[in-house]
Design a protein that fits this description.
mainly alpha; 9 strands; three-stranded antiparallel β-sheet
Length: 1145
Amino acid sequence: MSLFGGGAKPATPGLFSNLGSSSATGTAATGGGLFGSSTTTTTQPPAGGAPFGGLGGNTTATAQPQASGGLFGGLGGGSTATATQPQANSALFGGLGGNATTQVTSGFGASTAATQAGGLRSLFGSTTQSHTAPPLLGTQQSALGAAQPQAQTQGLFGQSLQQNLAGSIQQQQQSQGASLGLNASQSAQQRTSYFDSILERNRKRKLGDRPDEDLPQLHLGLGDMRQRMKAFAPTRADAAVDAKAHYLLASSGVDPGKAVRDLNALNRTMGRVEPPARYEAPDTDVEGYLSNLQTQTTLSMIQDGLDRSVKDFDAFLADNVALEWEAQRKRIYQHFGIKYRGDSPAASRPGASTAEHGGFGVSRRSKAAGLAGSRANGSPAASAFGKTNHQKSVIGVSGQPGTTSKSVFSDIEKRMETSGLTPVDPNDRLNRESEARLSAKVQDLNLARIQKQCYPVLHEFASTAAESGEDHSSSIASAYRALIEIVGESSEIKQHADPSAVRERQFGAAYLSEAPTSREQINIRKRILEGSTRYLEKQYYEMIEGYIAKSPRDANVGGIPNVINKVKAYVRLRNLRKDLAPDNTDLQTIDEMPVWALIYYLLRSGKLVEARTYVESNATAFAAIDRSFLAYISAYTQRDGDKRLDPVLQTRIQNEYVQRARIAPENSIDPYRMACYKIVGRCDIRNRTFHNIQMELEDHLWLQLVLAREVNQADELASEVFNLASVQEVFKDYGTRYSIEKSNDNWGLYFFMQILAGLFEEAIAFLYLHAYPDAVHFAIALDYYGLLRVTDPQREDNDLLSYTTRNQPQIKFGHMVGHYTRDFRAANPSAAVDYLALICLNQDLPGQMGIRQVILCHEALRELVLESREFALLLGDIRGDGQRIKGVIEERMRLIGIKEKDDFMRNITIQAASVADDNGRTTDAVLLYHLAQEYDNVMTVINRALSEAVSVPIGQEQMRLQPLKPRSAPTSQNQQVNSLSLTSVDDPVVLAQNMMSLYSQTGMYREQIKETNWADCEALLKMSEARYYVEQGKYSEALDVIQQLQLLPIKANGNASLIRSYATKFSSLSPALASTIPNILTWAIGCTSSQLASMGGVYGGNDGTRQLFVEQLRQDTMDLTTYTSQLRYRFPPSVHEMLARAQSQ
């Protein structure tokens, strides 16, 4: 019999006999347990068991009321709990707040209904989610007889409790006993609710509203589980107590309770007993104590020195290695032209300077950054001095030898990838020779600009292009000659005062005008049309002369070789060769000369006056052929040079042209007559071609240009409007239709067509794809005369060709020129200066546009100076008497928008000096600060270098400076001889001596130097002298020099106040001197120790004098020790070790 009554298996008695029972069936048994008897009928549970397997197990239990009574037999019997928990989400205690309604009829006759709102899932509750965790403790039948009707729930301790309707849990325990107010109506109500719940679950199962039946479920709450756990836990009352021990102790006269109380009281009163302190006799060994104290002090100082070294190293890393990575990454992005979005507020400060941060992060070196930044404030070109306003480098990264230059413009790179083009190899011999010739022309151009003279830049560039042996050189030369005709440049005119001279930026205002109908814009478009037409006519006349020269006998010029006779010979020669017109074509002749062909070719070669003269000389013959043409040709060649007919003649010639074209039979009209009518009268403007006349591409281009006319559109019919914009569209159509634009062989021809049509910006961008050196120089020529629209430097995109808000093309001129210098600026920085100075050609642009171009030029020059380090060549050098030797940039000050010398120093030299100082290039910084007239900063840099040189330990190699790069192009031999030769100085001592000698000779220099810097330099030079004596073993001379410095208490003879005054003086020393104190202290101690060691047999004096000398040296050592102990400065451990060693001696 079990403690809880009869179980399903009476043969297995025990305390928890029903726990984990897995019998298939159970019969009712009657027993009198403590809580009554229970009868449990079970189905076969799933395999497996656990200590709590019955909790949430897959069981079906039906409990019948038993006719047995117990103490609490009726308590909890006959109760039915129905729980319905709609489930939504999952949580640890989802049952707390779930929409669950539980109706429980307690053993006291009260019915309780609890509704918990919420959608969370409990650890022990239920959920509607189909994805659940597996049960933790398997499934077993409940150990207790509690009723556990469960919905389809899932818990931590069970598997699926319901797979179908027949498997729903029903467990009722009814025990007969003393029932507390339980009645039959309540039982019936519970029974009805139970069957209602079964019906509702069956309905949901059919409608598909039930969750997955395979999921384990449990409906016990947290409180229920806690009560079940407490019921299973053993208690003190349940613990088995062996009563025999009590009886045994009691029979022996021992009271266990009293003994326990006495032991507890003993534990509270007893504690740890400390042994008495042992008496130690006082230590009277004073010398041992002092020796031990000295040893401990020395070790402590050594440890403090090591700790200080670690802290100094960490501080050094924090200042120089642990960088402001965001700022450094931003500078890298800017250098490579990558836009960085995370602009910090500090980066946008107007006075922020890159010199404040050195090469990597924060720098302690820069002394003139604040001065430089203050000078830059308020200047239009302030960005050229401090942090640049541009988001990428102007000149780009210098090209590596043997590598191919890659385009830095995004639009050019995309077009090259699309067209399959390869970049031009700058290392090609022909390219290098062409670049050298063009560079010489650019230098001559700037020299002429400095001298205020005219320079025929187009003629010079055209001759250079013609000398090149490349396939496209002829097209480039032709484009230059066409531009010469447009501009009107003359190679003979040198002075600006000449009325025919074409001046620098002469057409800038007209070409860049924003009003398309303004007189200036119309005039510039007329100039383009007339110049292009004139070039094609001259080119054709040259072809005529060449054609005749090849066959002079057949041509039979005869007589005076004037224009008319040459053209007659040309017509005669072509007629002889049967290529003048197609067969069966009727050509009208005068004296066996095709008259209309002669007039046509005179017009084609631009000989209008000769054409009119020929018609007038043959007026009688023309009267029989066409009596009106004389009036037409006369008006065409005489009306103000615009080749327009008056309205009456215009109407008449068009009517005649239309009538002949319609009425005349085929091949009955001379095609050259119709061509002459079309040219003179602009007839049938929509059909811009000739019939039955052999035409080349140049002939088609010439016809479009000669028919185009720039007039006020209000004065002309809409059907007759054909202007420069129309010509540009036709030329673009030619390039697209005949694939000239995409051809890798005829791209020079398409570039030539774009120049003829005035598409200058688009022509430069197209030429840059195939030959960027020629594109750069053509852009320079256009910009020199003001025929190029340039991009605003602050534009964010990286396209070479872009468009304004008015859809006008523009070129990124400054960056294009700057990036071109990367091919040669490392070898020839002076040539790079000439190219970069051309950026300031656009300084005459209105508003802020011109100022930004000047700023861009200054930024490019600054980058060139810092990259090349050719300071002596670019910024100037110093003569032996301290006077300046002008550098290449200073000689071109007028060309780069700087009118005063001080502005030049502020914008370039001081910035370069600060950066050189930050990077530790002492000779560069000294030269640049001297050129900038910052003489006090010169002494500061020299003192820092001397301090570092003195701080080098004895026996190590002396510090050497990196000398300046020599001037590769001295202006004269006298300047080279009288130079201060900073290019060969690598010893900081020699550098200091040279500069002090220079400054001491001139009062102007000396007045600008602070006395402290001057005195520090003198003291550091004496220290270098003392170091020399120490290295040579001349210890007495070294001590004398150290004593003259008045920095250490040598020969103080133990005077405490004097030693204290030296210690107090240490705090007022400059950093350059204070950092050398440990070194000269080491030298002084070493000299005294060495002299003491040499007193053994070398000294030749008497013993008294020797003893006095020894005492003096020992006293000096003691004074130095006392001086060291009074300083708060932490000396290196080597100094303390040397002091301790000297005292022990």
